[in-house]
Amino acid sequence: MRIAVDLHIHSCLSPCADNDMTPWNIVGMAKVKGLDAVAICDHNSVGNLRAALKAGAEYGVCVVPGMEVTSREDIHLLCYFPTLAQALQMQARVEDSQPFIQNKAALFGEQILVDEDDNRVGQTERLLLTACELTLTEIAALAQSLGGVMVPAHINKGANSLLPILGFMPEEPSLPTVEIYGMQPHSALGRLCITSSDAHQLCDILEQGYELLVEEVTPQGIIQALKLGQAQSQ
Ligand SMILES: [Zn+2]
Ligand SMILES: [Zn+2]
Predict the structure, then answer these.
(1) What are the extents of the domains in the chain?
(2) pLDDT per residue over 91-104, tens digit each?
(3) What is the assigned CATH class of domain 2-233?
């Protein structure tokens, strides 16, 4: 079946996102817009996913546990997991390989953590925007070993993006799916190209429009489609 998705949304945990991007607000907005599934992908953290999953269960929107990891090469890589437990394992590996730099909220923005009912409980001290020491290849392997999949984010954007940084599409790791910024999805590059909002404010979350072909509307079903890549659209 074809489902309307937005697989790249930042919550208030990301310093660059609006403070009203709480998980319940995001999933509620997705419901209003008629999306079937969303992924919250904060920078190098999954701290607000528990709330997002609870909101998803309440509103009937599939929430895929996700994270936008910054690789050693300074490339943004979306990682999707079947469950919160696997996403937490990935977060632990990323944190271990990230230098601790204290966030300066006045400069970079607040990194707001909420409990599962959307109540603010504190802030993450570690500056989440920092790159980790894991390479593109290592992050792809880690995501896969945890039952997930890695999708390079906004590959055609200027900064923190695969194409401008590497200058080419690598043969390894195999990248069945990539995210294209600001363009209609197409099958260039011989891969599945997905479109997401990379929303940092509520109004930017996608309307119904970009559709993914899945066998089931679950995190596992969506990950499977991303792993299949272009083969899934035929
Ligand atoms: Zn990014
Ligand atoms: Zn992003």
Answers:
(1) 2-233
(2) 999 999 999 999 99
(3) alpha beta
